[in-house]
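Lecture 7 notes: from sequence to structure.
We start with the chain below.
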Amino acid sequence: MSQKKLTRHEMREAALLILFQLRLNSSTLEEILQDNEESFELAYNKSSLDLVNGVTEHSSELEDIISGYSPSRKPERISYINMTIMKLAVYEMKYCPSVPKKVAINEAVEFAKDYCSPSDVKFINGVLNSFYKENGDA
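Predicted structure tokens for the same chain:
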């Protein structure tokens, strides 16, 4: 595991990239981590892996929540990267009380700007803000 000290943003991005890789292929988490260390030098830490494990454990629930706040797209029509970004944000909003919910949304929007189209940024922001409006203090 990378021993480098990561910012919260870098930690989340590592989790996002690992989750996306898990979604795209049949490799185990251990195989992905080994490949990343050998090929991509992806820096991650225990917090990154905690997010990966949490999102993975609650994946179906997170997808159901996202579906409920996605009036225009069914889950099977949401791209893998968009769904992964939103799952990570909803997981943090629901299960990480130390993370301000608006920070989770902001981080998701920043990732969307880096990895998605402008229309996807609006979609992700809309879904997450709708969830926040109904669950902001919960």
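Points to note: The chain has one domain: 8-135. The mean pLDDT is 89.
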